[in-house]
Specification:
The protein is an alpha/beta fold. It has helices spanning about 75-85, 105-110, 130-140, 145-155, 170-185, 200-215, 230-235, 255-260, 280-285, 320-325, 340-350, and strands spanning about 10-20, 50-55, 60, 65-70, 90-95, 100, 110-115, 190-195, 220-225, 240-245, 245-250, 265-270, 290-295, 305-310, 330-335.
């Protein structure tokens, strides 16, 4: 499918964007590929095919800070890579800044700044300044202008005093700032930022978030921000698309999304020593509740577990749930009724946990 026309109000538009991955095959003892029967699913698709993006349709407005929220493996990075032309979709297409990702890939690349978190996309043996000057040359920015632009970006990132140090001596947060600076070198109208705060400490995360907001609001850039941090998406984004298993399950403002979960239909209990079979036990005690989900924390590290109960008359079962947890010798430390979060919306829409891990295909 291709676009008949492009709406100039949107910087990014996708139509039925689909991406498939073949699962890796395993080799036998003698180095020969193990034979597999090509079993077909009811859809006719081979079972060793993973659907990373499943007919994704998203329209992102110009100068919008748009969030893509979902667990690891949901398809967030795959979507960014398709939009940046580093991956070709198997079906559908998209336009970025009015250019088709299949027919006008060069123009798409000149329109975007790309920063993918958690990857070594910089040269660690070079200084921050040398890295940026090298990438500026790839963008064919004249050397005199490149020097000014690099100095400007290093100052913006708060790295001027360490510009001549090698990246191998930088912290993770500082390297992430250089990666974002590289994405801004040619002053693109659109930024694709994939998990830009992944693995950063709270101080650096706050600095990166403030920087992204400033780029969007003050410089008029369109930003696509992928994240699995619900607080980050809620705090920063004008609108959010929730993605799970390669499918978009909802798109709206954070406020409207959270309104999907009524306050009287939400109970969250925070506790330690949470039994692993507690979900089935509570479902039997609370028959009129739609969703009961246990989120097991790293209790040995001081991170408590949580039980989320949503839908129906969840509030009426507070006493029942508390009594059941006490009998199971769980130690309750907090009880919350109402005040929905984006995590609650995700659980209600998908039945899955936002913090669950995913497949390596993403």
């Amino acid at each position: 499918m291709v676009y008949d026309s492009v709406d100039e109000a949107y910087s990014i538009q996708t139509v039925n964007l689909t991406k498939l991955f073949k699962k890796r095959r395993h080799f036998g003892i003698f180095g020969f590929l193990k034979k597999r029967a090509k079993e077909k699913e009811s859809s006719g698709r081979e079972k060793d095919i993973t659907v990373a993006l499943d007919h994704v349709n998203v329209n992102i407005r110009s100068e919008e800070l748009f969030g893509l929220l979902g667990p690891n493996g949901a398809g967030k990075t795959t979507l960014v890579k398709c939009l940046s032309t580093t991956l070709l979709p198997d079906e559908g297409t998209a336009t970025v800044n009015g250019f088709d990702i299949l027919k006008q890939a060069t123009m798409v690349r000149s329109s975007i700044g790309l920063a993918i978190g958690g990857e070594r996309t910089l040269y660690w043996k070079l200084t921050a300044k040398d890295n940026l000057m090298y990438f500026a040359s790839l963008y064919k920015i004249p050397r005199n202008h490149a020097k000014e632009r690099v100095d400007e970006l290093l100052e913006l990132m708060g790295l001027s005093d360490r510009a001549d140090e090698r990246l191998e001596d930088y912290s993770t947060g500082m390297r992430q700032k250089v990666a974002i600076a590289r994405a801004l070198l040619h002053d693109p109208p659109i930024l694709l930022l994939d998990e830009p705060t992944l693995g950063l400490d709270p101080t650096f995360s706050r600095q990166i978030r403030n920087l992204i907001r400033e780029l969007c609001k003050k410089e008029g850039k369109t930003v696509l921000l992928t994240t699995h941090y619900m607080e980050e998406a809620d705090e920063m984004c004008d609108r959010i698309a929730i993605i799970n298993d390669g499918k978009i399950v909802a798109i709206d403002t954070p406020t409207n999304l959270k309104a999907m979960v009524k306050e009287t239909e939400l109970v969250e209990v925070t506790c330690y020593n949470l039994p692993h079979n507690i979900e089935d036990h509570l479902r039997a005690l609370c028959p009129n509740v739609e969703v009961i989900t246990a989120l097991h924390g790293e209790e040995e590290k001081g991170n408590p577990s949580r039980i989320k109960i949503m839908g129906g008359s969840a509030e009426k079962y507070v006493g029942t749930v508390v009594d059941a947890l006490h009998k199971k010798r769980a130690r309750i430390v907090n009880l919350r009724i109402g005040v929905p979060t984006l995590e609650d919306v995700f659980i209600k829409l998908t039945g899955a946990k936002l913090t669950e891990g995913g497949s390596p295909e993403e």
